[in-house]
Amino acid sequence: MPSLEYYDKLLLAIAGSLAFGLAIGVATSVAFEIGLAGGAVFATLFVYDALFRNPPLPSTGARAAVLVWHVFVIVAIATAVL
Question: Which of 1, 39, 49, 69 maximizes the CB count within 10 A of its CB?
């Protein structure tokens, strides 16, 4: 079985945090929305770590990815406005 990389573990931690908050909201007297919101706040810590503390390094095709992303955003905005 292949081992998980760092970002795979972060994705599992994010999903696990949300699932834990969901389980608290369903299985206890805590309101469902409050449990889910608590899980989301906890998952935010993992998102912060992935984006700001240990961001992924760009690959050699980063310029092409940036160009495609900006074209997508411009087309999406133009479609929404028109």
Answer: 39
* Residue 29, SS3 per DSSP: coil
Outline where 6-61 has alpha helix (H).
6-27, 32-48
If residue 74 lies in a helix (H) or strand (E), which one and from where to where?
Answer: helix 62-81
Q: Tokens at residue 38, please?
A: 């608590």
Which class for 49: exposed (0-12), middle (13-18), buried (19 or more C-beta within 10 A)?
A: middle
Residue with structure tokens 């900006």?
70
CA atoms within 13 A on the CB side of 67: 4
pLDDT in single tens digits along all 82 residues of the chain: 578 888 899 999 999 999 999 999 999 999 999 999 999 999 999 999 988 888 887 666 667 777 888 899 999 999 988 8
